[in-house]
């Protein structure tokens, strides 16, 4: 089964995302992580790589930028699509994300309908249309 990993420290946003994901009944599994350390530990221990990673930038302990950099220099992990999912619309954050080889940068959708649209987009594009070598 295809898996989407959401790295997001805001418990309300995590819950909101999970509820909408479950409501859509997609053929994928959503795993959530509240911090970069638990996320990186999971990746190191998991044999099956995720289909896509949704990564917040402002995380406790280790920043999303640091996580992105680690992912993109690791030969095993660098091909996993990483979508930055941030509340920041600051041009330096966007530029730095792409300099670190993010595959996409999205400002967090606001509201149930917009979140559902985003989840559908992720599912359709990154899990169905996108091809990974």
Verbal overview:
This protein starts with a strand and ends with a helix. A five-stranded parallel β-sheet has the order 2-1-3-4-5, sandwiched between helices. The chain has helices spanning 11-24, 36-45, 64-73, 91-99, 112-129, and strands at residues 2-7, 28-33, 52-55, 82-86, 104-107. Helix content is 46%, strand content 19%. The protein has a single domain (2-129), classed as 3-Layer(aba) Sandwich (Rossmann fold), CATH 3.40.50.
User: In terms of per-residue confidence, which ranges show pLDDT below 50 for 5 or more consecutive residues?
Assistant: none
* CATH fold type: Rossmann fold
Number of strands: 5
Q: Strand-residue fraction? A: 15-25%
Report the CATH C-level class.
Answer: Alpha Beta
Order of helices and strands: EHEHEHEHEH
Protein name: Response regulatory domain-containing protein
GO biological process, one term: phosphorelay signal transduction system
Keywords: Phosphoprotein
Pfam families: Response_reg (PF00072)
Which descriptors apply to this entry?
single chain; about 130 residues; alpha/beta; Rossmann fold; 5-stranded parallel beta sheet; 5 helices; about 20% strand; globular; phosphoprotein; Sig_transdc_resp-reg_receiver; CheY-like_superfamily; Response regulatory domain-containing protein
């Amino acid at each position: 089964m295809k898996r989407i990993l959401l790295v997001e420290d805001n418990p309300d946003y995590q819950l909101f995302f999970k509820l909408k994901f479950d409501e859509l009944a997609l053929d994928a599994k959503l795993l959530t992580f509240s911090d970069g350390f638990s996320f990186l530990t999971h990746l190191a221990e998991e044999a099956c790589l995720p289909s896509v990673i949704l990564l917040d930038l402002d995380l406790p302990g280790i920043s999303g930028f640091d996580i992105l950099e680690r992912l993109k220099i690791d030969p095993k992990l660098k091909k996993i699509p990483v979508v930055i999912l941030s509340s920041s619309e600051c041009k330096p954050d966007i530029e730095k994300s792409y300099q670190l080889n993010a595959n996409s940068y999205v400002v967090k959708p606001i509201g149930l309908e917009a979140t559902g649209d985003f989840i559908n987009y992720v599912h359709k594009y990154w899990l169905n249309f996108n091809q990974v070598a």
